[in-house]
């Protein structure tokens, strides 16, 4: 293990902090209007997880239609939202688990399992959206999946990383709790004459 890597008592808060970061990125993805945008001028199209907005080249007002009218829109929003809700629950459980003086490591492994479920839900939503959007919504000009969609993927990547750490953490229970004395390696000049 590296110098700190959860071996010290203060470092145990790194994983809940990363889950909090994933929640912030998930909120940005859920609220952001930049899931799909026009890549170059004229900027005539932008979309969020919830709606798709278009305007004419000379028009200043956006005409929006709800993506909840489509089955795939409801599916994408529901799967990403369910994953986000489970992520918030995992964050609360992680804060509780790491606040207890003696960690319950089987509890921590269960949080890791739930985080894999979160990642599965989020990936399903993040894959359904662009595939069905490009098939069923007419696009004009060059369009790109933009910053809010990227925050959705960033949140998912952080969740996957945290899931692995939460699942593997019980393997280093003694190191995290500080039950292992440090091992020092040295040799005396009598035992290693080749060092002289």
Automatic annotation (TrEMBL):
Pfam families: PMP22_Claudin. It is found in: Cell junction, Desmosome; Cell membrane; Cytoplasm. Its main location: other. One of its GO terms (biological process) is cell-cell adhesion. InterPro entries: P53_induced (IPR015664), PMP22/EMP/MP20/Claudin (IPR004031). GO terms for cellular component: cell-cell junction; cytoplasm; desmosome; plasma membrane. Belongs to the TMEM47 family. This is p53 apoptosis effector related to PMP-22. It comes from Gallus gallus (Chicken). The gene is PERPB.
